Amino acid sequence: MEPFNGLNMGLGNLFRMSSAQTRSISAENVTGAKGKGGMATQGTGANAGRDLGQGWKISPSVDIKPGEVFTAAAIDGPGAIQHIWLTCFPDSWRHMILRFYWDDEQEPSVEVPVGDFFCNGWCERSNVNSLPVAVNPAGGMNSYWVMPFRKKARVTVENRMDKPVVLYYQFTYTLTEVPEDAAYLHAQWRRSNPLPYKQDHVLLDGVKGSGQYVGTYIAWQVNNTGWWGEGEIKFYMDGDRDFPTICGTGTEDYFGGAWNFEHPQGQYGAFSTAYLGFHQQIRPDGLYRSQQRFGMYRWHVMDPIRFEQDLKVTIQALGWRSGGRYLPLQDDIASVAFWYQSEPHTPHPPLPDNDGLEVI
């Protein structure tokens, strides 16, 4: 059997002993230090616990002020983040920005709004039942992406709201040696609103280095009537220019569905599985909610898309018009691309301002 260091305790290795050390950071133990949990005497629960005192849920959460960049985790390695749980109110999900910095990076490897990172880009709760991401009632957000680091890991949350946000959070990690071939998790958010006519939505571009693409989440608003998912996803890698190496056959096909996601007839069929999901459908109500909105994910856990030099990923928005012809759509598409790669990485494009982030 291959050497095992406790970096990823899959079911196949769960019985094996390891010298890895498990630690966890939360508002009850902000450093993750051994034997230092539950010691707070001040915090968001101090009033509720005033009769009980230290050790009785005195600091279960933090208040992040408007404009504040809160350091949720600062860890000395080597090791890996194994599980993240957090929750905050849905109205803040697009304006709370998660950033992950590995080792001595000045530019984040992950820069994504909280809701979109957990497949909830519409600021409305939707459960997700997948292997790397799970969202449970009522807004408990979980990530199981393995995030190795060699020197340091730093996670920040920026509050772009005009009011304080209460954040509950827990980062569980392991301190252990990291294999030489371990890459770093990256994630990038992009939005086309509206998508220019006859142009593809770019999920990812400018990636340099070697690694593997491991996942896509899209929050998709349709601005036309009719079916909207004929578009192809395309992966341009390692020198591809005009034409990609990998080309899909349709939007619902890429996300694991078929025939317009229609089941039963006349309805969209929601599903959320280990690697594929069309988990959220927001329907018009005949008044102010005028557009259809969808959330969908595709995890390349069993089929990572490996690249050696560079990577670009695009998807088309394509419907139907008269005469059985395709109609390029001008939809509102926000996406998160997840991938692992060696460092250094190309800096992400700047996030838009609050108006550019807003769900409208």
From TrEMBL:
InterPro entries, sorted: DUF2961
Chain residue ranges for the region called Disordered: 29-54
Pfam family, one: DUF2961
Lineage top rank: taxon: Bacteria
Protein name, as recorded: DUF2961 domain-containing protein
Species of provenance: Paenibacillus rhizosphaerae
